[in-house]
């Protein structure tokens, strides 16, 4: 959780400022709504001592869907509408790939009947990676999203 904890406070401050903007209720709020869901569920899974493969599969099913929509629809649409740094978006896409790979590793641990302790250690690292990604994505995209009319 080191990476995430290092940026958490600054991020919360920024989000709270953005939330006061009346344009926030349009597109940006949708992104934060989904992210909050992943943060809530992810935190619960990370703190539980008896996560099943099915729990994790359900979690990553919606997470992957969210990431594919970003890769194929949100990011291209933002590229078109704004003078946004392409490398920054590429880095976010790269994060999605790393998250996919880590998911596979955790699923394999379940298949190999790894101990809850070992799974927990990987789960904490996975959530650190994911929560950091969600924060970085919000910090980068939300200021642009305040000016968006729709996601498509
Ligand atoms: Fe993302
Ligand atoms: Fe996202």
UniProtKB/TrEMBL annotation:
Pfam families for the chain: Hemerythrin
Record domain Hemerythrin-like: where: 35-144
Domain of life: Eukaryota
Alphabetized InterPro entries for the sequence: Hemerythrin-like
Gene3D superfamilies xrefs: nmb1532 protein domain like (1.20.120.520)
Protein name per UniProt: Hemerythrin-like domain-containing protein
UniProt organism field: Acrasis kona
């Amino acid at each position: 959780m080191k990476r995430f904890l290092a940026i958490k406070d600054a991020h919360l401050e920024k989000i709270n400022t953005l939330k006061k903007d009346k344009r926030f209720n349009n597109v940006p709020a949708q992104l934060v709504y989904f992210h909050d869901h992943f943060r809530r569920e992810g935190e619960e899974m990370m703190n539980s001592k008896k996560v099943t493969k099915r729990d994790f599969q359900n979690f990553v099913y919606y997470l992957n869907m969210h990431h594919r929509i970003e890769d194929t629809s949100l990011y291209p649409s933002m590229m078109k509408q704004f003078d946004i740094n392409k490398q920054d978006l590429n880095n976010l896409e790269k994060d999605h790939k790393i998250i996919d790979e880590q998911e596979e590793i955790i699923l394999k641990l379940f298949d190999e009947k790894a101990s809850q302790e070992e799974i927990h250690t990987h789960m904490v690292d996975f959530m650190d990676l994911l929560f950091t990604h969600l924060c970085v994505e919000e910090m980068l995209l939300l200021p642009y999203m305040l000016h968006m009319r729709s996601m498509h």
